[in-house]
Amino acid sequence: MIFIGQNNELFFLNTLKRSTQITYDKDINSPLTFLWTKDERSIIYYEGNEIKFKKNTIICLTDFYNIDIRHCSELRSIKFNREFYCILDHDREVSCKGILFYGAKELPTFQIPTNELEKFEVQWKMFEIEMQSKDDMQLEMLQSMLKRFIILCTRIYKKQNSFSELNTKETDIVREYNYLVEIYFKTKHTVHDYADMLNKSPKTLSNLFAKLSNRSPLQIIQDRKMLEARRMLRYTDKTIKEIAYDLGFEDIQTFSRFFKKQESISPINFRNNL
């Protein structure tokens, strides 16, 4: 089921009944996704590693994640774009910049407790009913319902991951950095750029990421540029030169060296091997 608003607001509600791959959708700008496993044992490959999830696990994904679902007889999916929900005056923890999407060190997941399951089932049913409505209030209703769903998820995620007031403040900085990279990676290319925006020193950011993340601030910038480069090579007809300029590289040679260093293959060979 799909909702499309007048200003390109997109909201998808689906139940997948087979193995599939959750990858880049070139028609959606920076989608955010919740996956809800309904199988007793779901097997997902993420960054080359096999991860097994129990029934009623919620997985929170930005478009940065590329996962391959190898075994899952039933999987519920909620996907939406920034135009649909990412309103900056939302409370920080339930916005599109919240801890579910940009504050986690690893792939953000949690299991729905048995005593909370009914709330989630009712919420899903309400989504299904509202998706059948076709009036001028549908967008506002779906946005309100999504916010409630995010609040339910955030409460459980924080409890299961033992967030304290201290590490919440630190996580806010990591989350904000990740969000800023998502917005500006094509035009701002150094840690210093983002440190200035956050009123922090590059060293402070490096120390914080060493504590809370498995990637450095610079690696996050590079990984995001590489992700976009792969997508553009795979899904667009742009030349290598055009892609290089779109990603902020001064020339095709610099882009090619960067790409090959990260991918161990040149951009042209990557595209030819697709």
Task: Characterize the structure shown.
The protein is an alpha+beta fold. It has two domains: 2-160, Regulatory protein AraC (Jelly Rolls); 178-274, Homeodomain-like (Arc Repressor Mutant, subunit A), CATH 1.10.10. The protein has eleven helices and ten strands. The chain has helices at residues 82-85, 99-102, 117-130, 138-160, 165-184, 191-198, 202-212, 217-235, 240-246, 252-263, 267-272; strands spanning 2-4, 10-16, 20-22, 32-37, 41-46, 49-54, 57-61, 67-71, 75-80, 109-111. The strands form two sheets. It has a six-stranded antiparallel β-sheet. Helix 5 (165-184) crosses helix 7 and helix 9 (240-246) packs across helix 10 (252-263). The longest helix is centred in the middle third of the chain and has 23 residues, at 138-160. The mean pLDDT is 84.
What structural category do the secondary elements indicate? alpha+beta
As a percent range, the share of helical residues equals 40-55%
The topology string of helices and strands comes to EEEEEEEEEHHEHHHHHHHHH
Number of helices: 11
Distance from N terminus to C terminus (CA atoms, Å) equals 30 Å
Shape: globular
- Segments where pLDDT lies below 50 for 5+ residues? none
Count of discrete domains:
2
CATH level 1 class label of the largest domain: Mainly Beta
Spatial sequence of strands, sheet with the most strands: 1-2-9-4-7-10
In this structure, how is the largest beta sheet organized?
6 strands, antiparallel
